[in-house]
Amino acid sequence: MMKSSINITDSFGSSSIRKTFKLAIILVAGIFIFRLAQLQLLQGSKYLDVSQTQAIKQIRIAPFRGNMFDRNGLLIVHNEPSFSIIITPYEFDRDIIPYLSKLIGISEEEIISTLEKNKNYSPFEPVKIMKDVPFEIVSKIEENSDELPGVEVIIEPKRLYEFDGNMAHLLGYTREVTRAQLEKHRYLRPGDIIGQSGIEQTYDAFLRGRQGIQFVAVNKFGQRVASFDNGKQDIAPNNGFDLYTTLDIKLQELAEKLLEGKRGAVVALDPQNGEILALASKPDYDPRAFSGRVPADLYKQLSEDPWSPLLHRAIQSQYPPGSTWKMLVAIAALNEGIIDENTTIYCPGSFTFGNRSFKCHGAHGAINVRSAIKSSCNVYFYQLGLKIGMENLEKYGKMFGFGQKTFIDLPNEKTGRLPTVEWLEKVYGKGGASRGRMVNYGIGQGEILVTPLQMAAYTAAIANEGTYYQPHLVRAISNNISNKVEPVAFSSRKLPIDKGIFKIIKDGMFDVVNAPGGTASYARMTSVEVCGKTGTAQNPHGKDHAWFVCFAPKENPRIVLAVLAENSGFGGAVAAPIAKQLLEAFFHPETFDRNKIYVPKEPSQEDTTPDEESEVESEFRQAALREEINY
What we know:
This protein is α+β, with helices and mostly antiparallel strands. It folds into two domains: 57-206 and 226-245, Penicillin-binding protein 2a (Domain 2); 249-284 and 314-630, 3-Layer(aba) Sandwich (Beta-lactamase), CATH 3.40.710.10. It is 34% helix and 19% strand. It contains 20 helices and 23 strands. Strand 18 (474-479) and strand 19 form a beta hairpin. The longest helix has 28 residues, at 15-42. The protein starts with 14 loop residues before the first helix and ends with a helix.
């Protein structure tokens, strides 16, 4: 009997069952493919962030901020490594805040406050809670890292200063970016260190550099355990560009010492190009206090100090120019043909305008413009002010940069004030620009206000006989990407004034220092021809302010100085002695003894008697008294 054969395919049933089975397989495969696509394409970025946070972490590497050098190549600002503590909120357990607080020595409230300030940013963005951390605290963090998830120690640069003194206002300081700055500048990130004032602020984009990124493998506590891909994916930081400044650091240090204990400013610049040699302002503060850990109340203390150490008096304080303004009035009158070199005006000792008498400090008789500058004759310039009028005052004032910024490469410069007809009528109403105001404006009083920097730039334009250079502090930037030192360009303009006029003015300023009867004979030097002018700025709130502006030598001048000493009475008592010593140090650095500098003080009845004074003090005192009589 034959056995019947069995067809294996029949055991799977009909063709319809086979089709169903195939569809089921396709459906299951489709579900897997759809889910895979959903994870990879639609939700990939979400899970990538999570997976990388758990496995691969990005560590920001701070670049070293650019260095600064003086005009002679001396290093004045650089960096050193320091430790900072950061917290990554995503990995951090707030329950450990009490333990962390005890470990690093700052309050729980401070840690919480810092975290709250940054809560609106990405939880993966590290928050800096402590800077300039001592090594013993770093050791504690490392030893207890297993109990401190999300807490890390990083290395950052810290600013170092290689000079005596502060240079606070011109250099500025660096500090962690504020919330307002983060909202204004989207390219900044929490924890970034940026320039907050001075050169540090103006050139921050060059100095700051570009941050690097290091990719590291981390464990479940967020602690790095190895580099990722042997560091092949890391992005190296690019250090900031170096700055080559125009400063003479030795002259700057001396200027600060000579202003010690005073309120005032010194500006020294090169009249041939506008380069700032020194820019001192007192009182000031130590920028080193802002490098590393900054006391919480430091800024509050400085801002509330009645002596205003945060005020940069060289570019922000505004004073009447007093007799230093007389050269501008003379230039306007000469250039407009109102007078010439030989025109005389009679000075009987006073000048009457309307029903008011304006006094002079002496009766100078018939006097020409050169002699009027030498003896600082008020009567001559009262009348010259009336002759030139408001329109010419505005014209020549603007020509020499008054009533506007010099556009020095520093933030927050003030414009001073140059009164105009429009401004006077706006403030005082119709008739506010009366002709009588020009009597006061002729001698630099009234509503005219200037900054020490403006006075230096104006004096420089006289010294070089007609070129106004934009004052500046940086001459070149070292580009470490192109490996080139790139000069920084600044503007200059020729003034539409005949050079012969400047020679007349320079002769008058030379006489101020060198001729009998001049008001600044105490500034005379045997080896260099000094040209200068003293001035007194009236102060309704106390003693008048003292001015002295000068340049040297007379021909092809190399340096201009503007010195302002608040509440010092008259220019000879304090301002001129400061300028004299700066000139000596500039022209004779090899013989000038910095250990025997004379720091001038205001003369008063309580001062030491003449026989107790040093020889230099006695000389300056007698010269100051001569000026008080002649001014």
